[in-house]
Structure formats: C-alpha cells, structure tokens
C-alpha cells in the first residue's frame, strides 16, 4: 500500500460513495474501485461494507482510517516543511476568525501581505466551536476566538479582555438618561440573545451573570450571528448584551451603548493554534504579528 492508495481510501470514506470520491479525485470510478480491492487483498481484510447506496467502515477499515489520517497529516507536514527550507514564502495561509473579532485582522494582514506578497491569505469565519474543528481538520492553522473555550489542546496568545455592554435601540424612551445601566433594569426589558449553534459561548456567560444577580432575562429572540442581532436591536425588537469590541465592526447609528455598572461578565480574545502539530512558516510569521504593536482597529 502506498500514500496514493491511502489518500484514495480516506477520500472514499469522507465522501461516503465511490462515485463522489472519484469525482473529487478527478478520476474514473472503475480504477478507484480496483484500487480499493487491491488494498483489501493486500491487507487481507474487508475495509468497507455497503449499506444501500452508502459505504460504511468495517472494524479494520475504521482502524485504517484513523491511523491513515494521522499518517497523511504527518506526510503533508513533512512535504510542507521541506518546501519551506528556502528563504521565500509562498502558497496559501488559512486562518479562522470569529466575526465579532474581525477588527484584529485588517492591519495585520496588510502588514503580512507587504512582507510576504507571494502568500495568499484565506479566512474562514465561524464560532469558536466550529473554528477549533477546522484546526483539528487542518482546514486552518490558527484562529482568533473568544472565550469561553477549552484551550487545553491549543497554544494561545491573549489579545484582549473584553467587558460586556448593553446595546439598546436609540428610540426606546424607557432607558436611563445617562450612559450606565444596572442588570435589574436590563432584565425588565425585551432582550435578544447571541446563542451559538454548538458548545458553550457568550449566551452562557450572560445567563450566568443574570443568575448571579438572581434575575431572569426576558429573551424574545436569539441568533448565532451578531450582525443579525444588531439589526434586530436597531429595529426596536430588543436589547442585547455583547462584548464591547463587537461594536468595532458595526455602525452605532440608532443604537445606545451602556456600561453595566454591576456586571463582571467579560470575554477573553485570543489567537490559538494546536499543540504538537506542525505549523507552517507562514503561520508562524503571521502569529508573530500578534506579539508586536500592530493596531487592531
């Protein structure tokens, strides 16, 4: 068995059908089927079984898939490392970013592009849960994320600690005249929640803060997208508690922003990358920009 055959097998598993895998590999279906048969003959065990139109892993196939993924990762990392032995950098740097943290990127990407013009930067967006999956899958090498997040398997550079503020429609007449508000006053207003699809996030941080005060939030709407939430706020549907820096990306027109006088809720923004995994030279150079004094807005 060689690396090429192993890559064929893993693609078939990930696509679930030989037809789809052949299309992704830019090859005809019969030669791909023959390669799989050759692998099973060499190993002496069946790797895949058919369940209707879908292929499923046997016990031997599952073991080969898990070990094969690790082997291909190491192989690809080795090829990248060898290619990077020269002085120049080229290729694609793939990174991820939570949308509410996008203000950390423009100046740093500009500086990176000025220094390494042959490297194309690809940015994937998502919540922290999705971005860590992207790192594990090697779709990206690093990501800018907000807490709460389990970073046990990641190296991190802390970028900022961000307090929560209350953002409300400017047209609301029931708001305080000043720039500060208390949690009890917030709890009596209709609220919109930033609720990610998977994992623990800002929603739980806010809910814990209400619980700490013995209060229950009056949620009338929720979404995992901060842009949608702020549109709902501008429309007068409700107010929202968000990390203060989220507003770097949005217009404050028709909004009022309040400091919460009795809240200790906060999030930490960090850039993360996986421990004990090869990091490309381009990724290392990009991460170094977060240890220097580059503006974030």
UniProtKB/TrEMBL annotation:
UniProt xrefs under InterPro entries: HTH-type_LysR_regulators, LysR_HTH_N, LysR_subst-bd, WH-like_DNA-bd_sf, WH_DNA-bd_sf
Domain HTH lysR-type: 1-58
SUPFAM superfamilies linked to this entry: Periplasmic binding protein-like II (SSF53850), Winged helix' DNA-binding domain (SSF46785)
Key words of the record: DNA-binding, Transcription, Transcription regulation
Domain of life: Bacteria
Molecular function (Gene Ontology), one example: DNA-binding transcription factor activity
One Pfam family per UniProt: HTH_1
Family: Belongs to the LysR transcriptional regulatory family.
Name of the protein this chain belongs to: LysR family transcriptional regulator
Organism the protein comes from: Halalkalibacter okhensis
